[in-house]
Amino acid sequence: MGHGADAATTATPRERLDTAGAADVAATLQALATPSRLYILARLQEGPCAAGELAGAVGMEQSACSHQLRLLRNLGLVTGERRGRSIVYSLYDNHVAELLEQALYHVEHLRLGLHDTPAEAVAEAAEPAAAR
Amino acid sequence: MGHGADAATTATPRERLDTAGAADVAATLQALATPSRLYILARLQEGPCAAGELAGAVGMEQSACSHQLRLLRNLGLVTGERRGRSIVYSLYDNHVAELLEQALYHVEHLRLGLHDTPAEAVAEAAEPAAAR
DNA sequence: ACAATGAATGAAGAGCTGTTCATGTGTTCC
DNA sequence: GGAACACATGAACAGCTCTTCATTCATTGT
């Protein structure tokens, strides 16, 4: 499964951005920008899961989870299929799974490789305006 | 430079998430969740650039750009080095470049592969509450 | 048809985000 | 030293996001 030489791979990121629409790209990537959604996607990466069970697995209220699932569904990252009275959710396809995995990979390494930036900086950036 | 078998690669995403701290991961990934920051990172991927020039290149006001640069700096994604009266920014390292590139790769393919989700859905998700 | 379950939806509120405007800090050149 | 330039910083505000509460819809079982 090589990410080798696609048509798009020859272009610079900046060109690819306007091609795809920076706003759309940002919107899609924002799916990974919240702990709740990250947990949902990570849980679904282990396999399909009914909505209610999912909410429990990631420690959210049913309603909150449903709202986020709608978002992820609208972005095309997950799909829900009715099965009895439950609705079973899954990751949309492999690109979602890989996107998640590689994001984690790079973030892990970024967080470990800091030498300029003391750990505070990340914590500081993570906490918006609290804890001062 | 293979992403082969790291220590972390054996764990499931969910485990990796709590290990790294879901909030921190989310905070880092949110750097890619906005058009302005995406443009900044994409421009820097082409090579180092002074702050003022950068602002012009991505079509932002100097101040707005500086604010976002601070964010990216705090997250450890970019670094700034003084050179004369300018401050030249660069991507922190290869992980940032690859994160950007792979994010674009997957988003491009996700946006093309939609079959359940009509194009409206993405547009709808991109536009928060406007255009109704 | 009715009650019960599982999930989606809508409204509302607290909090965060990104931009702008105004000002401050550091650097170069005269 | 003082003017000009390059950038950072702080305050403030509009807008978006996420959650909670209440309600509605769909499906199953009696």
UniProtKB/TrEMBL annotation, chains A, B:
Q: Where would I find the HTH arsR-type domain in this sequence?
A: 17-111
Keywords linked to the UniProt accession: DNA-binding, Transcription, Transcription regulation
Q: Is the keyword Cytoplasm in the record?
A: no
Query: What is any Pfam family matched here?
Result: HTH_5
Record carries keyword DNA-binding: yes
Gene3D superfamilies per the UniProt record, alphabetical: Winged helix-like DNA-binding domain superfamily/Winged helix DNA-binding domain (1.10.10.10)
PROSITE patterns of this UniProt entry? Answer: HTH_ARSR_2
Return the protein name: ArsR/SmtB family transcription factor
Q: Taxonomic lineage per UniProt? A: Bacteria, Bacillati, Actinomycetota, Actinomycetes, Kitasatosporales
